[in-house]
Design a protein that fits this description.
EC number: 2.7.7.72
Helix content: 40-55%
Structural class: alpha+beta
Domain Poly A polymerase head: 22-142
Bound molecules: adenosine-5'-triphosphate, magnesium ion
Number of strands: 11
Catalytic activity: a tRNA precursor + 2 CTP + ATP = a tRNA with a 3' CCA end + 3 diphosphate; a tRNA with a 3' CCA end + 2 CTP + ATP = a tRNA with a 3' CCACCA end + 3 diphosphate
Binding site for CTP: 27, 30, 111, 154, 157, 160, 163
Oligomer: single chain
Protein name: CCA-adding enzyme
Number of domains: 4
Length: 404
Amino acid sequence: MKEPFLSAVPVIKRLESAGYEAYFVGGSVRDYLLGNKISDVDIATSAKPEEVKAIFPKTVDIGIQHGTVLVLFKNNSYEITTFRTEGEYQDFRRPKEVSFIRNLNEDLMRRDFTMNAIAMDANGSIIDPFDGQTAIKERVIRTVGSPEERFREDALRMMRAVRFVSQLSFHIAGETLLALKLDAHLLDKIAVERKRAEFEKLLSGDNRKNAFRILLETQVFEYLPGLKKRELKIEKLLSYPFDFLNKKEMWALLLYCLELDQQNSDAFLRNWRLPVKEMKEIQDILLYAKQRLIKDWSRYDLYTAGSETIQSAEKLYLVLKGINDYDSVKYWLNTYDNLPIKQRSELAVTGSDIMAWRKQAGGPWLKELLTRIEHAVLQNEVVNEKEKIKEWLKACSQKSEKNC
Ligand code: ATP
Ligand code: MG
């Protein structure tokens, strides 16, 4: 066994010495068997949430109705979930109520795919009742039990299958893929927030091109916000060499391919329930990339965009142009780094300085003048020093206002 499991073994041992069973489960065991980087270590136990809380002094209730308690242990935190079955499913969504059980096998049985239904004990022994290890060897995504039944219980599992294609470069087993085509419409019942979490993982995966192909092939895209009847636009997206784009840049590329105006692109991102800050970042990337299709970056655009947006917008521009050489990203970032100021607060003069010099109360003229000074400093027309700017303003007003 290796980290991060090793640090978590004492957590399992504590549960065991209190008389309960406990195992590593879920994505961490799968990724460990795959030899991939392991993210969060999840633990499943026969102890009920209150019993878990009685054993560990520091816990946080993060999903107690589903049996999950977050345990803080030696600078790490672990999600510990009580073995459970999910009882009756309502309306193709995961059930509101779960029943806690004392049996590991039944807990593994309610999990989505065989590769995700493997447990590992504190000694590193594997418990694998559904032959998930073979699925991992064959790189195949196969539901635990009948795919149709499992997708009808919780339709989100279909999105999860496609995001695992993207994340793990696995393929979907024949019968499971067939059920996906048959039941794709059930995704209509699923909360957008749950779909988004899976879609964003899909957007970030190495094999996302194939995942998008499966969204098309199975018609799953028809049941995702803003993608209904957008088959041709998604096909257009697939024609771009987007291997090096990150998640936000992928959202921006998707917006570009959908050819939405500002208002509709707002609505699209809002329908996906993206946080407002991210919406703005994505739209900025697209805005500057589109501008870049027409002309080089101006110093003022570099200044207003900032380094992160410059990098993303330039990358997106290169993808749109089919250019494989990323040197220009470095070039523009370097130009940005050498700008004399990065934000207005770095100007050597303030509004009050100017009002004092001009002996004039503030007003729209002041904002306009500050913007002109900003431009002049950025273009190296004037050095960003108080006295230099004062002289420059004086010279300007002696010529004509228009010159500055
Ligand atoms: P990742 O590495 O991306 O976190 P993961 O497999 O750990 O992948 P999670 O969403 O963290 O995915 O879920 C943890 C585990 O819970 C899964 O491995 C699976 O066993 C189970 N699970 C999650 N969602 C579902 C679902 N909708 N239906 C059935 N089992 C699920
Ligand atoms: Mg996980």
